[in-house]
């Protein structure tokens, strides 16, 4: 049987534990960033949707106002025949 110094075994296990801890930290960081990014995207999407809805409401209001002005203006307009 091979005679192994216990100090080398402890060093090997310590290095293995350190590598595992670093990998766990990297994994945790990546998953947390993914969650934060997803939340940020959802917030931006909701804000853009709200702005688009507001813009559509403004456009509808302006269109209605212009149509009513056009109807009022054209009510007094009479077509004359040029013949």
Question: Can you walk through the features of this model?
Answer:
The protein is mostly helical. The chain is built from one helix and no strands. It has a domain at 12-57. The chain has one helix at residues 6-75. It starts with 5 loop residues before the first helix and ends in an 8-residue tail after the last helix. The mean pLDDT is 88.
Task: Summarize the structure in short.
This protein has one helix and no strands.
Task: Summarize the topology.
Layout: H1 6-75
Shape: rod-shaped
Helix-and-strand structural type: mainly alpha
N-end to C-end Cα span: 122 Å
Instruction: Catalogue the unreliable spans.
Output: none
Mean pLDDT: 88
Strand content: under 5%
SSE string: H
Query: What is the helix content?
Result: over 70%
Number of strands: 0
The major β-sheet equals: none
Separate helix tally = 1
Supply Rg. 36 Å
């Amino acid at each position: 049987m091979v005679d192994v110094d216990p100090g080398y075994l402890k060093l090997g296990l310590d290095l293995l534990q350190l590598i595992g801890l670093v990998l766990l930290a990297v994994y945790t960081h990546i998953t947390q960033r993914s969650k934060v990014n997803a939340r940020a995207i959802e917030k931006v999407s909701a804000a853009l949707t709200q702005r688009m809805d507001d813009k559509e409401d403004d456009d509808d209001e302006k269109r209605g106002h212009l149509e009513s002005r056009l109807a009022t203006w054209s009510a007094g307009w009479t077509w004359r025949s040029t013949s």
